[in-house]
Specification:
Keywords: Ammonia transport, Membrane, Transmembrane, Transmembrane helix, Transport. This protein is mainly α. It has 16 helices and four strands.
Length: about 475
């Protein structure tokens, strides 16, 4: 065991964990004031659910001995992390339990990312159920495809095909982006989609969240070197270069298109650059990272408005930023990779031919297709059984009040239409009566929270 490597991965694990609260702030600021609590709870809910499953069987599916020709690991091999507390159990130069914790934070943030596509309209409890199912049948196997290496006997994308994904462009971002698109289609558009601006209610929260994401991403990318070494240093510098370039590219396109360079655009550019460099940070030189950042920032800033033309309601642009950004970064390796970088592979522009480009396209396409199809089926099943989308009236009142009984801001109030309020209160009363009738007479029977007539303003300038 190397104490320096161990110390760095301990720090990196904490940094990646910080990305989930950072995402909660980023997403929370982007939604309306009446949905901020729910949006944050979806991120923290993913943290809770996936942490439990990762300990039980998630790590084993992702990194257990391959049992399916590169498709998944043995779920029983490390069930409950059995046998991994032995001091002699090492992953490279660090304790295996530390590697378990580090990779577990990747699983958490991937699930949390998906939630941005269904803001304002998802049932919280169904979301938790979705997180458990999706983590089990989508993320854990895909993590095995990409991250499990065993001298050619590991995951089929990373170890057998030879596609490069240093820190999760496919397993995290394309995976989450494709899932977000599928869920957005299953749940449908918000009731007032396209009828008015859905502006962020709190831009300072968005900027703070973006800053925390950037900070945490150093652990995400540089920590994926699994050591305090030169590979980590290259990944860190390339992350800075691509992210800065993407932010500038985004706001330049925004200025040319809309006449303004906005803080929302800057924050989106930051996340886009981070996403794009994630798979490529060990394969490019710093100039290549700058080029990638510019290309990703420009493309994603143009793609972001396609949802209005194509009429799919990806609430917080998970598709434009994570799916498209992940595709750009993953495929760009086939063009911009240089053998001088730690990955040691030349792309097309450095005389490497089309081989690596082909591997990148196959890997990216496989994850996209698998995630989209399976997620659509999961979402469809949950919508038809327990219900995934909230009622229209609940959407008007706000998911915070109806599902959580809370408001993000008790500093002002705006009245809810009387007819909507009456329907919501009648529904809550009916549920409470049904619960009481079905109980054994205990005083503590749970009743659905009653919506109040007032809801917070909190800077929410979007239409109700």
């Amino acid at each position: 065991m190397d104490t320096g490597d161990t110390a760095w991965i301990l720090v990196s694990t904490a940094l990646v964990m910080l990305m989930t609260p950072g995402l909660a702030l980023f997403y929370g600021g982007m939604v309306r004031a009446k949905s901020v609590i729910n949006m944050m709870m979806m991120s923290f809910g993913a943290l809770g659910v996936i942490s439990v499953l990762w300990v039980l069987y998630g790590y084993s599916i992702a990194f257990g001995e391959d049992v399916g020709g590169g498709l998944l690991g043995d779920p029983s091999e490390f069930f409950g992390l059995s046998g991994l507390m032995d001091p002699e159990a090492l992953s490279g130069t660090i304790p295996t339990m530390l590697f378990v914790g580090f990779q577990g934070m990747f699983a958490v943030i991937t699930v949390a990312l998906v939630s941005g596509s269904i803001a304002d309209r998802a049932n919280f409890w169904t979301w938790l159920l979705f997180a458990a199912i999706w983590g089990t049948v989508v993320y854990f196997p895909v993590a095995h495809w990409v991250f499990a290496f065993a001298d050619g006997d590991g995951g089929w994308i990373g170890d057998r095909l030879g596609a490069i994904d240093f820190a999760g462009g496919t397993a995290v971002h394309i995976n989450a982006g494709a899932a977000g698109l599928a869920l957005a289609l299953v749940l449908g558009r918000r009731r007032d989609f396209g009828k008015g601006a859905h502006r962020p209610h709190n831009l300072p929260l968005v900027m703070l969240g973006a800053g925390l994401l950037w900070f945490g991403w150093f652990g995400f990318n540089a920590g994926s070197a699994v050591g305090a070494n030169g590979v980590a240093a290259v990944a860190l510098v390339n992350t800075v270069a691509a992210t800065g370039a993407a932010m500038i590219a985004w706001i330049v396109v925004e200025k040319m298109r809309d006449g303004h360079a906005t803080s929302m655009g800057a924050a989106s550019g930051v996340v886009t650059g981070l996403v794009a460099i994630t798979p490529a940070c060990s394969a490019l030189n710093p100039i290549g990272s700058l080029i990638l950042g510019v290309v990703a920032g420009a493309i994603c800033s143009l793609v972001v408005n396609l949802k209005f033309r194509l009429r799919y309601d990806d609430s917080l642009d998970v598709v434009a930023v994570h799916l498209v950004g992940g595709l750009v970064g993953t495929i760009a390796i086939g063009f911009l990779a240089t053998a001088d970088a730690p990955a040691g592979v030349d792309g097309l522009f450095f005389g490497g031919g089309f081989d690596q480009l082909g591997r990148q396209i196959v890997g990216a396409g496989a994850v996209l297709a698998y995630s989209f199809v399976v997620t659509y089926l999961i979402g469809w099943f949950l919508q038809r059984t327990v219900g995934f989308r909230i009622d229209d009236d609940h959407e008007v009142v706000g998911v915070d009040r109806v599902h959580h009984g809370e408001s993000g801001y008790e500093i002002g109030a705006e009245e809810v239409p009387d007819d909507v309020l009456a329907r919501v209160e009648a529904s809550a009363a009916a549920k409470a009566a049904a619960a009481e009738a079905g109980s054994t007479g205990s005083v503590g029977s749970a009743a659905a929270p009653t919506a109040t007539k007032e809801r917070p303003v909190g800077g929410d300038v979007a239409t109700a």
